[in-house]
Design brief:
Ribose 5-phosphate Isomerase B, Chain: A, about 15% strand, globular
């Protein structure tokens, strides 16, 4: 199951990504928003991230106009590593090295075709499991 959420600025792309995922056979939990009416991105960034952190969803995708605010919001939830990606190489590397469990997209930054390629790359790439990357991920998760 993949959690997906957006604010009004990411609503249209969220709907397209959701359809793309469902056509590929993924189950999707849409935590909102559900229209282009103005709303607050932290509400939906937190909601999607909580689904991932709880284990209810294996991964998550969040979308706002730039992807910045909603990724910051998602990363406030313990256990979430949300990466803002605007290209496929970043999507690949954040999975390989950082074991990111959430992807953030900027609807005003990436077009539909690129967004779908980023989503596919993110979901198709597994964490490398290399010791040096695991060590670094453990350091990220430490309470400071």
């Amino acid at each position: 199951m993949i959690a997906i959420g957006s604010d009004h600025g990411g609503y249209e792309l969220k709907e397209k990504v959701k359809k793309h995922l469902e056509e590929k056979g993924f189950s999707v939990k849409d935590v909102g928003c559900h229209s282009k009416e103005s709303c607050d991105y932290p509400v939906f960034g937190h909601a999607a991230a909580k689904e991932v952190a709880s284990g209810a969803c294996e991964s998550g995708i969040v979308i706002c106009t730039t992807g910045i605010g909603i990724s910051i919001s998602a990363n406030k939830i313990k256990g979430v590593r949300c990466a803002l990606c605007s290209d496929t190489l970043s999507a690949k590397m954040t999975r390989l090295h950082n074991n990111a469990n959430m992807l953030a997209l900027g609807a005003g930054i990436v077009g539909d075709n690129l967004a779908m390629s980023i989503v596919d790359t993110f979901l198709e790439t597994a964490f490398s499991g290399e010791e040096r990357h695991q060590r670094r991920n453990d350091l990220i998760e430490e309470d400071l």
